[in-house]
Amino acid sequence: MSFPMQKDIEEPLLREIAQRGGEARPNELFEAVARHFPQLTEADLKIPHGAVYSPWSTRVHNVRAVLVHKGELNKSAPRGVWRITDKGRQRIGLPPSAQTQVPPETPPHHEVLKQKLVEIGKALGYHTSTEEVLGPVGHRHDVLWRPGPYKKDPSHVIEVCEGETRLRRVTNCPSVIASEAKQSRSPLTSRLLRHFVPRNDRRQATLAMTNE
Description:
Blueprint: H1 6-19, E1 23-24, H2 26-34, H3 42-45, H4 55-70, E2 82-83, H5 86-91, H6 109-123, E3 127-134, E4 139-146, E5 156-160, E6 166-170, E7 173-178, H7 188-196, H8 199-208
Parallel strand pairs: 5-7
Antiparallel strand pairs: 1-2, 3-4, 4-5, 6-7
Helix pairs in contact: 1-4, 2-4, 6-7
């Protein structure tokens, strides 16, 4: 017999499983992994009389047990199925499987609107801030615009809420509620300019901001 060391079989076994979509049955793997080791003889691969497994398949089964212990094969896979884990994929230089990849987090629509209002305020020359507490009741406001960085009182206090657009007054400052209604098909920036910026200032803001 001229078997390779068990540790030398580990990565070829992981690669063969990964190439089959991440899982495979043992009988698919014995010959495939053996092709990585041309020193194996026909006798090594043949099942002896009265035995259940060939010496080679026994060796591969032992390697599988080691990989399960290392967390590189899934110990919870159905019986008769060898399944690679993300740790196993990482070992052989592959990215995580599509099932376990976390999609990039997108900011909530509320946060997108707040950021746009900050950009509009800056484009119009205001000093902007967010999530600031004002007034005796300690109400936290989404976006505030001030004529300058040293002005205590804001000139605009903007609240971003869902489902409505209306003008109200908060702590004696102009306040607007931004709509998050999804039925509007106009670009977000244009919608915000229409709601929050005086007509005479819209051209200035439009020129200062990039399109969405």
